[in-house]
Amino acid sequence: MASSANLHPAEAPVIVWFRDDLRLCDNPALTAAAQSGRKIRCVFVYDEESDGLRPLGAAAKWWLHGALENLDKDLRQRGTRLSIYRGRASELIPRLATLCRAAIVYWNDRYGEAERRVDSAVQLLLEQRRIDALTFNGSLLYDPAAIKTKSGEPFRTFSAFWRAVYQAGDPAQPQAAPVALQDFGDWGDNSPRAVELSELCLEPRGPDWSGGLRSNWKPGETGAQMQLKQFLDNHFDTYAECRDFPDRQTTSHLSPYLRFGNISPRQIWHAAESKNSESDVKSYRNLEKFQSELGWREFSYYLLYHNPTLAARNLQSKFDRMPWREDPISLRAWQIGKTGYPLVDAGMRQLWTTGWMHNRVRMVVASFLVKHLLIDWRQGEAWFWDTLVDADQANNAASWQWVAGSGADAAPYFRIFNPTLQGEKFDCGGHYAKAWLPELSGLPPQDVHRPWQASSGVEGYPTRIVDHDFARRRALDAFEALG
């Protein structure tokens, strides 16, 4: 059957609907639109109205502002521009396509249930108006609907899932950015009003708390390419052996760029492959470990696709009976980094200042909230959602459930991180803790993660809000009561 686009005159334009894919390179929807030979209008809809869509947290909104600004700049350099709208995408996209008599609307897939529901509604309305909708996988290495066990069921463990992915072969090579794009022009007098980026009010106003974010990040595709190069040139060679040490800049820091699609996982995958030396065991270990981190992101989206309520419901239903505590005072101490455990507090203050936290420390602070304080993992997930620049509906929820023990392939509940020992093992010199906790600057290394034992005391640093041994026993008792 011929595409309905063939029924449209040659001058009929096409629309590219940007969402979590704010880049030009390796953007399958944009590439296909450019190859159509038609004039293009690029659109972004800031949708806070469609049912089920989760509003972005404050740090993610800040990032989105910068990423949209960068995308519009890059599009203008190639001959077109980004039109920004605010409202229900399920109404705006079909309306815009109809007004400009578009032949095709292109977009890259999303995998949350509410997002898929919006996309399906748009596609149905377009089909009714004889406008094609062409969609692509632009944010994952593999389509989560296509990877299943031999019995046709979804995988429940990461290791089995990742083996299946490896057997599927390397992901496709990334596509180059279009060299030039033909701009469509004005929509017409009856079109919805495009808004200025500033009208979305994504950046903080009075007080401006984003200074730490600005000094640590450059949102957008340009920043993503710079960060990837910096990581591969300077830290990839020590990734496997040093990635767990938070005082070293050895992790990629690419997570927020992936979250907003400023770079694709295929770009990262193949760029890392180019650093691998087949004859060098160490090089292969670095590559294998780094790619497995991309794999965890894939698995998180896989879980979200097959479990739409991932951020709200325990994957293991027995945890529905968990006797979580309501303790707003301890929760607040955790949020602002005043628990009395230096590794936990340093991580939470790093998060508040920069919108990011080292992965090893994320596991420790999450374990502390869920197991030391016995506070529901969903309260931690919500705090991360608001404060992380890489807050991701799949990674965020899947990782919290993993730490809590309630998720798929989760860490056993009885695995309770000792934050003191974790600090002494992965921050043995105390450099990371001291960087974020100036109260501890005068302590010798052996006392940094045990300030309560310092002979001279520590002025201004809080006492521990809970004893480790007591908290561990309480958590284990609660788990055992689940049966």
Automatic annotation (TrEMBL):
Residue ranges of every copy of the Photolyase/cryptochrome alpha/beta domain listed in the record: 12-141
Gene3D superfamilies: 1.25.40.80, DNA Cyclobutane Dipyrimidine Photolyase, subunit A, domain 3, HUPs
Single GO BP term: photoreactive repair
Catalytic activity: cyclobutadipyrimidine (in DNA) = 2 pyrimidine residues (in DNA)
SUPFAM superfamilies, A to Z: Cryptochrome/photolyase FAD-binding domain, Cryptochrome/photolyase, N-terminal domain
Site residues by UniProt (Electron transfer via tryptophanyl radical): W324, W377, W400
Cofactor or coenzyme needed: (6R)-5,10-methylene-5,6,7,8-tetrahydrofolate; FAD
Note describing how the cofactor binds: Binds 1 FAD per subunit.
Entry's EC annotation: 4.1.99.3
Residues involved in FAD binding: Y239, T251, S252, H253, L254, S255, F290, D390, A391, D392
GO molecular function term, any single one: FAD binding
Listed InterPro entries: Crypto/Photolyase_FAD-like_sf, Crypto/Photolyase_N_sf, Cryptochr/Photolyase_FAD-bd, Cryptochrome/DNA_photolyase_1, DNA_photolyase_1_CS_C, DNA_photolyase_N, Rossmann-like_a/b/a_fold
Domain of life: Bacteria
Keywords for this protein: Chromophore, FAD, Flavoprotein, Lyase
Family stated for the protein in its record: Belongs to the DNA photolyase family.
Protein name: Deoxyribodipyrimidine photo-lyase
Protein's organism: Bosea thiooxidans
